[in-house]
Write a structure and sequence with these properties.
4 strands; Alpha-Beta Plaits; 30% helix; 4 helices; 171 residues
Amino acid sequence: MSRLLRALLVLVLLHGCAQQTTNQRDDTPTGETDRGGIDAETTLPPETVITPEPRPKPKPEPEPKPEPKPEAAPKPAPVVVAKPVVQSPKIASGWAVQLGSFSSQENAGRLVKEVKRKGFSGYLMPLNKSGKTLYRVRVGPVSTKDEATQLAARLSAKGYNGQVARQEPTG
C-alpha cells in the first residue's frame, strides 16, 4: 500500500477516534470509551505515525556562463590615400587664362571641376618651384592672345578673375 493511502487511512482512523473520544464521559478513564473501545493512542503504535514525504528540491538551474567579453577589435591600419600624380596634360602651345596657383592639389582640382561644370575647358598645370609643387589652374588654350583676352572677359562675367598667360607646349 502506498504511503499516501496509509496516511489517509491513519487520518480517517484518527478522526474516528477523536469522534469517539468526544462522546466519552468526563469520568471515563483514558484508553476506554463508553462502548468499551480503545482510543487512538493505544491503537497506533508510535512507529506507524506517518509524516509526509519531503518533496524533492528542484534541481537548481545551472547558472548561465558569462558570455566572453568581445575583445576590442584591433584598430585598422590608417588608410593612406595616395594622391594621384598629376601629369601635365598634353597641351599645344598657345594662350590660356590662369585662374590661380595652389599648393593643395585638392583645392586646385575643385576649381577645375567648377569651371568645367560652367562649360570652360579647365586643367591643372603642376609647377615645381623651390622643391615644392604648385598647381596652376588654367582655362584654354586658345590660339591667339586676343582670343585669350576674350576668354578672360567671359570668365570674369562668371565671377572668375584670371590673367592671360602664354601656354608652352607640354608632353
